[in-house]
Amino acid sequence: xxxxxxxxxxxxxxxxxxxxxxxxxxxxxxxxxxxxxxxxxxxxxxxxxxxxxxxxxxxxxxxxxxxxxxxxxxxxxxxxxxxxxxxxxxxxxxxxxxxxxxxxxxxxxxxxxxxxxxxxxxxxxxxxxxxxxxxxxxxxxxxxxxxxxxxxxxxxxxxxxxxxxxxxxxxxxxxxxxxxxxxxxxxxxxxxxxxxxxxxxxxxxxxxxxxxxxxxxxxxxxxxxxxxxxxxxxxxxxxxxxxxxxxxxxxxxx
Length: 254
Hints:
This protein is an alpha+beta fold and 254 residues long.
């Protein structure tokens, strides 16, 4: 596959370019933290404006290869809006498109097939309240039962109904999904979701009796999160994450 692609920095608006840089950074971070599944799964971002336009990964590239200019601009039906040498995966965009359609606040949708995430999605009890991380997830968690590979149009309304107004979605026997107003928000939520699942798998593997968090402690977690992040939400960690990427490979900004 040809990896030489012209920069789109002077082609798109400054706002879209910044979104491209953040989304490319998110893909690199997903790879860095070990949540990727070869070239499968997607992170989509809605481009601000009245049109329903989105950015999605070029299908066939590993997540640590993705750059701001290689991201593909598509419409709701995953048709390319800017010429690109890279293919897209309409089937992979199916889940994302229906969530963007139902949720005006879904600026970014991040989906993974991580080992721990799929493991917990297959456990009947789902996410257990056994860690501090889990309390943030449980405050806004929904579940959607597995219906096979998500290719059918008729599944979309059921998925939308299952999600409702929640920001964490556990796709049974499938994986994890987070929604954020920004790319940064979706990433920080997935970081918390993934660690919740890893902790749970480790705790269950230990074989001892589990201690559950008191339900009263889980009340008002949205306000607690604001305090924990100094009122900045994901913005408290995002600049440091970008600096880490810059030390490793700053090419995501190209």
